[in-house]
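Support request, please re-run this one:
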Amino acid sequence: MSKTKAAVYASLSSKKMRRKHGLFLAEGEKCVVDTLGAFELESIVATRDWIATHLDLCRDWENRVLEASDTLLKKISTLSNASEVIAVFHIPEQNKILENFNDELILLLDGIQDPGNLGTIVRTADWFGVDKVIASEDTVDIYNPKAIQATMGSLKRVKVCYADLCSVINCHQSFPVYGMMLEGNDIFKTTLGQAGFIVMGNEGNGLSEDVRSLVDHPLLIPPYRDDSHGESLNVAIATAITLSTFRNH
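Re-run finished. Output below.
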């Protein structure tokens, strides 16, 4: 591998450089294997030992496999303990999921900041059969290595794109808009549809004012105790409870 290519791969921890080069990393054997075939592969960078023990996989992608030393992998990796294998994929063009909505649930994410939360939300959406996620422009990059790790391969099945959420909602006015907020109605006592937008808000501030004004079905996951409880649920956990409740109605 050339020094130039190694330098490009090592820069992909940065969103700016991911966008500049149109590339992102998947790190670790499970993450690499789960993601292969879902995106256009640039290369698989691995140690000699890893290549030797995965000959069948490497034969399938033999013209894209690059041998690297442990030292080089550490330079490329974004993990504290570098894996023996890293895959480099091309970022796909903006998904055309904004054009054709059927009678389905679509998850909208308003300002999610933590990459682990975002990846877990995508993994959760996959589990509950939600295959379209639309994120606000200020939501963390789904191609952040930590987000990729947290999806556990679900990005192969769940399409994620970025857009202005208010514009999306206004362009699909026949869709009900369910928004999770502290002043919402008890989700467990509310009649829920099997189609519409479900909006999850920022970890600290909830829904933005503009998006909040477009919610026509405000919902709340009530605490078990009225008098003593934490300030709020983690947004990824709240998403799991929300989608489970929708799917069980």
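The chain has a mean pLDDT of 92. Strands lie at 23-27, 41-46, 65-67, 85-90, 105-110, 132-135, 159-162, 177-186, 196-201, 217-220.
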